[in-house]
Design goal:
The complex is a heterodimer of chains A (338) and B (203). Chain A is an alpha+beta fold. Chain A has 13 helices and twelve strands. Chain A starts with a strand and ends with a helix. Chain B is an alpha+beta fold and 203 residues long. Helices cover 41% and strands 12% of the residues of chain B. Chain B has seven helices and five strands; from the N terminus they run H-H-E-E-H-E-E-E-H-H-H-H. Chain B has a five-stranded mixed sheet, sandwiched between helices. In chain B, a hairpin with a 2-residue loop joins strand 1 and strand 2. Chain B starts with 10 loop residues before the first helix and ends with a helix. The chains are: A alpha+beta (338), B alpha+beta (203). At the A-B interface, strand 1, helix 2 and helix 6 of A face helix 2, strand 4, helix 5 and helix 6 of B.
Chain lengths: 338, 203
């Protein structure tokens, strides 16, 4: 690990001012905010991340950033809430099960105890060509160097949202729940507070895979706000992995349904493990809207969700696996007893 | 039984001196082109004085900001119970309690652990040597083979009982999935936790 200075933040605006660096620095900015540190320290040990300064923002959890606030109209999750606390919060479990499940099925108990929600959504890809600096080619790590995964071992890589420059899969689970439930992200900048749709937070790789989010260097996520609706209780997260626990998704689906009997009033669907960013399957949602939900219509929706899939040598299995995962999630949500 | 420390010679001090001697040659050979590491060494010497509260006692130590809690426990404070397996947060051998929560000490900076209550495997047994019910249950159930992962397993196991995740074999397996055992003693580990959970609930 390279040397860095460590600062304990006691004031959020001051931390953000200190972390604000030139706008072209992006995710390898020389000043990094650290919550649980489970991704950042790992990548610093691997020499992928090389900050000169680390600002520990966990002391700010004593303010509102550490709170879970549920009202009749919305759920507000502070950015410094621990994954394990959100996964077991009674209001989250009861009224937003897709959020509780996405967090509870992620990582291990120790990591869930440490990692905070703000950083969770920003976790970096597990692409081995990104994580292993002995590979010269990685457009995320070294812009313009090429992509070793496209012609490499790409069993775990994305089939949706890829480009000729990057096929790295977005590894998280929680983000799929947030994008499916139309969450908003609250952000603190040096210039003050702002917010954006969660759907606008992550950027498709395109020709600039090193720019992963719409956050400017130094900006800090302070909370996620999730609007309540009849669909939030009928929601579920289905995750398929190489082993039954403590693994990243090969395919996953976050589903929230508003039902009128057997007919879908509205469906909210997001896919994980298969895309370069948290992926909202709007085509599948449109196909289900106003239609009866059964295995046939669910399968048709899944076909639509993966119509644009682009596979590589080792990851073609993700298309049928992803479809089956979505069908199972839809039927599981429909069968939920509320 | 002869205590190695009483003879002024222990396996650990032997290993430490042996390492220094053998490491000297390759380091000298690589000296050219290691300017980054030399700069790091300078920064390391300046260090940060910190106080860690471990097993109920305060420990003052000066560390480079890069030093993990795991390395501080093992290399600076002689608390070698927590083990270094992967050093990447993937195996759980380094698990300790921070404010009662099972935490990976390899992904925790020592400087970030100030002001927290840290418990390691060394802090479990009573002053008279009576084992914690979880330690005793691991012995009773033969819940280890080589034993390298055991301190981490036991620290996680105690935390999941306190957190209410040890209700049955399935919830135990899920809550313990962050602790790998390469000898695959898993069935006995689950049995040990089921036994200790009952005893711990009785108090």
């Amino acid at each position: 690990m390279r040397p860095f200075t460590y600062t304990l933040a006691d004031d959020a605006p001051a931390a953000v001012r200190q972390a604000t660096v030139p706008a072209d620095a992006h995710v390898r900015a020389p000043v990094q905010l650290m919550g649980g540190g489970t991704t950042l320290l790992d990548l610093m040990k691997l020499d992928v991340m090389r900050p000169d300064a680390v600002i520990d923002i966990t002391p700010l959890a004593t303010a509102r950033y550490g709170n879970i606030e549920a009202s009749t109209t919305e759920l507000r999750l502070g950015a410094l809430v621990r994954m394990s606390d959100a996964a077991e919060d009674p209001a989250v479990v009861r009224y937003y099960p897709v959020i509780a499940q996405s967090l509870g099925l992620a990582a291990s108990q120790q990591l869930r105890n440490m990692a905070r929600l703000g950083g969770n959504a920003l976790q970096r890809t597990r692409c081995n060509y990104f994580r292993d600096t002995s590979y010269a080619q990685c457009n995320k790590r070294n812009p313009g160097s090429g992509c070793a995964a496209i012609d490499g071992f790409n069993r775990l890589h994305a089939v949706l949202g890829t480009s000729d420059h990057c096929i790295a899969s977005y590894p998280g689970d929680f983000a799929q729940a947030l994008i499916a439930l139309d969450a908003t992200v609250e952000i603190l900048s040096a210039g003050g507070a702002r917010s954006m749709r969660f759907a606008d937070l992550h950027r498709l790789p395109g020709s600039t895979p090193h720019i992963e989010t719409s956050l400017a260097p130094g900006e800090m996520i302070t909370a996620y706000v999730i609007p309540a609706g009849p669909w939030t209780r009928r929601s579920t997260y289905t995750k398929v992995r190489d082993r039954e626990s403590y693994a990243f998704a090969l395919a996953s689906a976050a589903v929230a349904l508003d039902m009128d009997g057997a007919t879908v009033r509205s469906a909210r669907i997001a896919l994980g493990g298969v895309a370069t960013v948290p992926w909202r399957a709007t085509e599948a949602e449109a196909l289900l809207s106003g239609k009866p939900l059964d295995e046939t219509s669910a399968t048709r929706a899944a076909e639509a969700a993966f119509a644009g899939a682009k596979t590589h040598e080792h990851n073609a299995y993700k298309v049928p696996l992803g479809k089956a995962t979505l069908v199972r999630a839809l039927l599981t949500a429909q069968a939920m007893e509320l | 039984m002869i205590d190695g420390n009483e003879t002024g010679f222990s396996r650990r001090t032997f290993l430490a001196s042996g390492t220094v001697a053998t490491a000297a040659v390759p380091l000298a050979a690589q000296a050219k082109g290691r300017t980054m590491d030399q700069a790091a060494a300078v920064r390391a010497e300046t260090g940060v004085p910190i106080t860690l509260r471990i097993n109920g006692g305060n420990h003052r130590v000066t560390v480079d900001p890069r030093t993990t809690l795991l390395d501080t426990l093992r290399e600076r404070l002689g608390l070698t119970g927590a083990k270094k397996g992967c050093d990447q947060g993937q195996c759980g051998a380094c698990t300790v309690h921070v404010d009662g929560r099972a935490t990976l000490s390899c992904l925790t900076l020592a400087v970030a652990a100030q002001g927290r209550d840290i418990t390691t495997i060394e802090g479990l047994a009573a002053a008279d040597g009576t084992l914690h019910p979880m330690q005793a249950a691991f012995v009773d159930n033969d819940a280890f083979q080589c034993g390298y992962c055991t301190p981490g397993q036991i620290m996680s196991a105690i935390a999941i009982v306190h957190d209410g995740h040890a209700n049955d074999a399935n919830t135990i397996r899920e809550a313990m999935s962050g602790n790998l055992c390469r000898c695959a003693a898993y069935p006995n580990i689950v049995a040990a936790i089921e036994q200790a959970a009952v005893q711990m609930k009785r108090g």
